[in-house]
């Protein structure tokens, strides 16, 4: 993950022991050490620590995941899965790095070209929406 001026300070911090039920939308750099039952969205980068557990979708510019995510991860720049991480869901990004011993169950779309990425992301999300309506 490349650090930008906006990434120098953490704009949103969800500390260890915190339990949040509901969607969270923030701006800038975000760090999660607690539990979230809901979607998480930021226009900046996000760190999901090894202590964090998220049941919901994660949307950001870049994501470093060390904890558990049960949901989809969509990061317009990059995703890095640390050794301690588990992701049960799909990942859509331009670049992905997966360390040893990661648990990942889902599909991954990683396309470096921005226009192809945007096109494939839109198509993937449309297909996923159709599948979820057909299944339910």
From TrEMBL:
Record Gene3D superfamilies: Hexapeptide repeat proteins
InterPro entries, per database record: BacA/B (IPR007607), Trimer_LpxA-like_sf (IPR011004)
Signal peptide per UniProt: none
Domain of life: Bacteria
Similarity comment: Belongs to the bactofilin family.
Xref: PANTHER family: HYPOTHETICAL CYTOSOLIC PROTEIN, POLYMER-FORMING CYTOSKELETAL PROTEIN
Name under which the protein is recorded: Polymer-forming cytoskeletal protein
Native source organism of the sequence: Treponema parvum
